[in-house]
Amino acid sequence: DIQMTQSPSSLSASVGDRVTITCQASQDINNYLNWYQQNPGKAPKLLISDASNVETGVPSRFSGSGSGTYFTFTISSLQPEDIATYYCQQYDNLPITFGQGTRLEIK
Amino acid sequence: QVQLVQSGAEVKKPGASVKISCKASGYTFNDYFFHWVRQAPGQGLEWMGWFNPKRGSTNYAQKFQGRVTMTRDTSITTAYMELNRLTSDDTAVYYCARDRGDAVVGWHFDFWGQGTLVTVSS
After folding, report:
1. A57 phi and psi, to 5 degrees?
2. Whose CA, among B39, B63, B111, B120, lies 20 to 30 Å from B86?
3. Cβ <8 Å between A34 and B108
4. Nearby residues of B64 by Cβ (< 8 Å), 6 or more positions away
5. In the A/B pair of chains, how many CB contacts fall below 8 A?
């Protein structure tokens, strides 16, 4: 199975900060990577597909980049409603696997 | 609007089975694959497999093969996931999710059910 390693596991930042989360795959997954946001007690929400495509309706402060084994997810200016756990997901090989998650908190 | 509504929480004893439903509305049921994903308490997301409602075909994660069955009832636009031989390690919230791919598996889960908590305890 492809291992997806997210960093950091948790992050505390201030409103307005630029926040970056990384996701490293244990092997080349091309750009077959999605990012999800999960609020407590809620289902995940797809934010970014194919490493860098921002989903319709998702604020432009969210972005993604990368290919191969290294990917980044960025919030350009953190807002209070962005408090959530974020997961990367690879779909290059079965089984689909997710990163362990990054919990984002407001400082 | 697209909605996936899952059945309610379940409490099961070890060795039992659980069957969760996922009622779809707001789109053509047969046109989009389903995935099932689970999340143990305080843990990350784990993919269990996909299901094609048009053909009834499946692809289960190896970890669950032999223990999971995904089915549907097209007359009521509902997908099901049954997991057998439950252990405490199966305690989790189980989600159904729609795949955005049009008649193919696209691996982008664009709509999710609200989740069903399954607790396995003696």
Report:
1. 90, -10
2. B111
3. yes
4. B48, B49, B83
5. 50
